[in-house]
Amino acid sequence: MRRIKYFMLTCVTVGCMALTGGCQGARGEGVAKEKSEESVITEASRDEKGIGKEEIVIVDQLGKEIVLDGVPERVATTIMPFPYIYYAVVGNSDHLIACNPSSLLAYEDSALKYMYPELAHANTEFVDTSFVVNIEELLKLEPEVVFQWNYMEEEIAKMEAAGIKVVALQYGTLEDLETWIRIIGKMFDKEKRAEELIAYFHDSVGEVTEKIDTLSLEDYKNILIMSDNLKVNGSGFYEYYVGKSGAVNPAQDLSGEALNVNMEQIYQWNPDIIYIGNFTSMQPSDIVGNKLEGQDWSVLDAVAKGQVYKIPIGGYRWDPPGVETPLMVKWLAKIQHPQLFEDLDMRKEVSDFYKEVYGFELTEAMLDEILNDTQDF
Length: 377
Prior knowledge:
Rossmann fold; six-stranded mixed sheet; four-stranded parallel sheet; 12 strands; 37% helix; 12% strand
C-alpha cells in the first residue's frame, strides 16, 4: 500500500481518489458503493440486492450515447482483453455471460483463472475470433449490453438492428485504456474504483520513468517486438511501454502491427533484445536454437547474448495495453537496464500488484507461471 499512500499525498490534482484500501477493497459483496459526483446512480435507487435501477448513460468511443435501465446483469463482449479489465474494475461477477473464444484460450494460460473462476462458464458460441457475431446465438443469451470494436461497423449495425445495445470501444493507446476503465466504472457503479486504478497505473509507471529520465537516448536499448515469425510491430503499437522502459523500436519507421519483414531487414536492425509476443506459439528457443527453416538468427547481437524473451501472461497477455501494463514496463526496464533496476524484484512487484489491484495473493507456483516461461533455452 506504500505507493497508494504516496499517491494520496502527492497527486491531489487527480482529486477525490481515496486510495487507502481502495485497490484491495473493491472485491466481494461487502464493497463500499462510494461514487463520484458524476455518478447517475444514487443510493436511493438501489434494491435489496444493491443493483442500481435508474438510467445509466454511457458515451462510447464512437461518440454514441447508450442508455441502460440500470447496472446490467447480462453483459457480452467480443473484445479479447476485455474480461480481465472488467475484472480489475468490477471483481468477481456472474454478469459477464459471454466473451470471445480467444479470451478463454488466454484465460486458461493466465492467472485470471485463479481469481475469476466464474468466467470459465462464459458462452463463446455467439462470436468467432474475427469478432463476427452470430445474431441468433447472441439473442439466445438475452444480453442487456454488448461490447464490440468501434471499427466493426457492420457488426454493430447488425446487433443494433436486432434491438441489442452496443458499446463501441477503440484499441491502441493509454487514453483508450483509461476510457475503457471509466466506461466500465460508470456502467457498474464503480467510478471511484476506476479512478483509483488509473491513478495507481500512473503512479506505478512513474517509479520507472523517474529512473529512465536519468538516461540519455544513447543508453536506450534497440529492441524488436515480434508478433510472429518474420512479423514485427511498427509505430502506433506499444510505443507507450517501449519509451517508458528506456528503449527504441528500430521498426518505428514502419506503421502498423504484424508487418512482414525479411531476415536482411532484421540483420540491418540488429536488435540488442528481441521480444516475442504472446499471440504466437513461437518461442525464444526457436530463434536462439536456429529452429526456423531457412533463417539464420545466430549472427544477431540479441541471440549471441541470449537476450530473447517471451512476453508474459498475467491476468491477460501483457502485449496489448491493459491494467497490467505497469508490470510490463517494469519487466522491460529490468531486462533492458539491469544495473539501473538492480533493486527491482519482479516477483515482489507482481505479487504486490496483485494484492493491491486485484485483492488476490499469488502463490509461488502462480508467480512461476507468470515469470518463469519468458526464456525456454
